[in-house]
Amino acid sequence: MTASVFSTAASKFVERSQSLLDQALPDHRAELTTSDSPTGDSTLLVATPAGVLVTVELFAGGHHVGNLTMSMRLRWRTHEQALVVDESRFGLFLATDRQPLVRFEFQDKLTATPQSHWHFHAERGSFSALLARTGDRGTGRRDPTRLASLHFPLGGPHFRPSLADVIEFVIVECGVDALPGWRRAVHDYRTHWRRDEAAATTRQFPAETAEALRRLGWVVRPPAPRAIPQPFVTVVAR
Fold first, then answer.
1. Which of 26, 154, 217, 222 is most solvent-facing, going by the fewest CB within 10 Å?
2. What are the boundaries of each domain within the chain?
3. Model pTM?
């Protein structure tokens, strides 16, 4: 695997994301690019030229009402020959406030919190009362006074929200201005995303995928045991 192939795959990912922003949101002023990770671990960051976080400006009736911040860290998995999202973070802010309204986060590495989760920055007395009564039970670091301290699971790495989901949320649910072709842009991005995630799921569960294909009438044969990638050596050949 050469750096050039990795860079090409990452560039296509960034171009697709930039196209979605350009076709869905007016005057957002966000510019996506790739930059080498300072850790030197063959990781690229989706970032503005000035830093890691991208700020997407949101408008309503032509007035700047909010910001969407985003960052995505990409990595090439050699044994899978695939580009994967190592980490993604999306945050929705009121234009005049530094505290987020909601955050969608994903971290591929194992942590004490769910890999894919969302934080809701709003408070309700009844919820705070529940957290106070449950005390130190569970594994999460909860603050009874802050609902945002909870991590709401989103189904794991292959079911996490994509940029298309976040864009659809701010347009449909939050009512920000959108360009006429935003639905097509969201649909096109989501189509590519789902295909990529379907391929990733296939690589993670090859035996189950093969069985599902056989039931559909496909003829599927496993590789020789020594050719099976290390993470999947437990796959039983048929």
1. 217
2. 3-120+155-197, 205-238
3. 0.78
203's enclosing H/E stretch is helix 182-204
CA distances, 210 to each of 69, 195, 205, 217, 234 (Å): 39, 17, 9, 11, 14
Q: Provide φ and ψ at 95, rounded to 5°.
A: -55, -30
Question: SS3 letters for 113-170?
Answer: CCCEEEEECCCCHHHHHHHHHHCCCCCCCCECCEHHHCCEECCCHHHCCCHHHHHHHH
How far is it, in rounded angstroms, from Cα 192 to Cα 158? Answer: 13
Cα distances from 13 to residues 30, 92, 110, 200, in angstroms, run: 15, 22, 24, 15
Residue 91 contacts residue 105 (beta carbons within 8 Å): no
Computed over every residue of the chain, the mean pLDDT equals 78
